[in-house]
Amino acid sequence: MCRYAESTYKVHYVCVACRKTHKYAWDGADHPCPSCRLPMTYAGHDFAAPRRGNDSGWAAVAAVLGAGLKYEGFETCGCGREPKARPRTRAQARRWRAGREDQEAP
To answer: Which residues pair with 22 in a beta bridge?
Structure first.
């Protein structure tokens, strides 16, 4: 039985500009940032925010979310366990982006 089908889980939404995160029930709606009122970005079930003063960590979060990836440690239904590595610093984000571009090139 799918673990996400049995109950409603809240997911993380992020405003990278304000460095704020909030959890809302996933409903497909736009959730505005309480500070700047811009739409927050859906970050996934397993997002762990860096501290507000961690510039390198927030740069990595911006790179991951900007590439269209989410912080999901499970399959979308929640049944399979396949953790995916995400960069935690600006240097890791640069290496991750460089490796990703190499994979996409013909």
So the answer is: 13
With left for phi above 0 and alpha for psi between -120 and 50, is residue 94 left, alpha or beta? alpha
pLDDT at 105: 40
Say what the pTM is: 0.70
**Helix 55-66 to helix 90-104 angle, to the nearest 10 degrees?**
20
Residue 60 near residue 87, CB atoms below 8 Å: yes
DSSP code, position 42:
E
* Contact present, 17 and 61 (Cβ < 8 Å): no
CB within 8 A of 103, min separation 6: which ones? Answer: none
CB–CB of 71/44 below 8 Å? yes
